[in-house]
Design a protein that fits this description.
The chain is an all-alpha fold. The chain contains six helices and no strands.
């Protein structure tokens, strides 16, 4: 059973408030709940709606990595690094670079 917050956010899906922020929020809540696949679905939708949303890219990378999808997580982090760089979001760029390097080492890439 989803948390009350998740239930409230899901009520907004398909409404005029269904935007990148809503999808990011839902993805973040599912990530906290340990539902990695559902988190990744909403976070992927967030970055589709706003490709420059560096926080969503970072969360997507985490959801994929925690869900055992390291190669996909690495791709998300790389795309997130590009998005963060383009926005001048140096902190997000730095964090995702660290996460990407760890995944590269674990994958032997």
């Amino acid at each position: 059973m989803p948390s009350p917050l998740i239930a409230n956010l899901e009520k907004m899906l398909g409404t005029p408030r269904d935007d990148a922020l809503l999808r990011y929020s839902l993805g973040a809540e599912y990530l906290k709940a340990g539902e990695h696949a559902r988190a990744a679905d909403h976070l992927r939708e967030a970055v589709t709606r706003d490709p420059g949303y560096s926080a969503a890219w970072k969360a997507l990378g985490k959801a994929l990595a925690d869900g055992g999808r390291a190669a996909d997580a690495l791709d998300a982090y790389r795309r997130g690094i590009d998005a963060a760089h383009a926005k001048g979001d140096k902190q997000a760029e730095k964090e995702m670079t660290v996460f990407a390097r760890r995944l590269e080492r674990s994958l032997g890439a």
